[in-house]
Amino acid sequence: MEESVSNVSYGSASGSYIIPEILYEDEGTQEDRVDSLNEESLVTTTQSNLSTSDESLYSDEYYTGHRHIKRKRQKGFKNNGSYTLSCEWKNCTFQSTCVDSFQLHVSYHIPQLELRPKDDDEEMYGCLWDFCDFETENTEEAQRHVNYHAHHTNLKAIGREISVQWKLPKCGFGTEFKNILPDVTEPYFCDWLDCGKKFNNLLNYRYHIANHVHNYPVTFKTERCMWRGCRRTFDLKFCLKVHMGSHTKEKACACPTCGGTFASHSKFRDHCFRSTEG
């Protein structure tokens, strides 16, 4: 089932709000969705723990553009999942140490998107996340945007943990753009074999892809990527799981100061050093 929204608007002291009645991709009750997410997360636990510590050895040189700086060889980041995720929606103080619970909580803010008038008598959905000025006329794009805030918060928390473990210098950029997100104008499409499902929730999308890999029968000596147009093969299923990140545009972490996202922990490390150069 694909997501759909029917709208009911309500007035408030601070303006009118749009209340989408959301029908999620997964069938069943909201409680069923939580149970399903928790079960699916078990599939990706090993992948998550391994993929966050796969950069065990980095170059001992850092190139600034003018000179090479020698540094101690960096140990890999160990993600023990002990960090706290804080919701930054207007007037919300919710916190959680569980990514699934946090994502579900943030999705509850979708009905609170502010309805803002335009000059041509049309209205826009306005995001109420701190330091975010996102607006759109498209209901599904608004859903994807709010859901991405939850994912981005988790990436920033990972970046914060990396900064502590590796004793990185604080990013020298400002915080005014820390919650400005890239536009997600299209749903997340699954191109595994003939699947074709689409999602407006990145976490659900990632779990869905992980289940494809986990449930794919081992009938060959090598693991084959079944993504449309891809012919890569791997000796280990774990390597295939890591490879899938290239198809889903996976990000490893984000800067907790400026909000920039990075494909690897080493790129975030380099960002911290470059941003503090005079």
From TrEMBL:
<feature type="domain" description="C2H2-type">
    <location>
        <begin position="223"/>
        <end position="252"/>
    </location>
</feature>
<dbReference type="GO" id="GO:0005634">
    <property type="term" value="C:nucleus"/>
</dbReference>
<keyword id="KW-0863">Zinc-finger</keyword>
<keyword id="KW-0862">Zinc</keyword>
<protein>
    <recommendedName>
        <fullName>C2H2-type domain-containing protein</fullName>
    </recommendedName>
</protein>
<dbReference type="GO" id="GO:0006357">
    <property type="term" value="P:regulation of transcription by RNA polymerase II"/>
</dbReference>
<feature type="domain" description="C2H2-type">
    <location>
        <begin position="188"/>
        <end position="217"/>
    </location>
</feature>
<dbReference type="GO" id="GO:0008270">
    <property type="term" value="F:zinc ion binding"/>
</dbReference>
<dbReference type="InterPro" id="IPR051061">
    <property type="entry name" value="Zinc_finger_trans_reg"/>
</dbReference>
<keyword id="KW-0805">Transcription regulation</keyword>
<keyword id="KW-0479">Metal-binding</keyword>
<keyword id="KW-0539">Nucleus</keyword>
<dbReference type="InterPro" id="IPR013087">
    <property type="entry name" value="Znf_C2H2_type"/>
</dbReference>
<dbReference type="InterPro" id="IPR036236">
    <property type="entry name" value="Znf_C2H2_sf"/>
</dbReference>
<keyword id="KW-0804">Transcription</keyword>
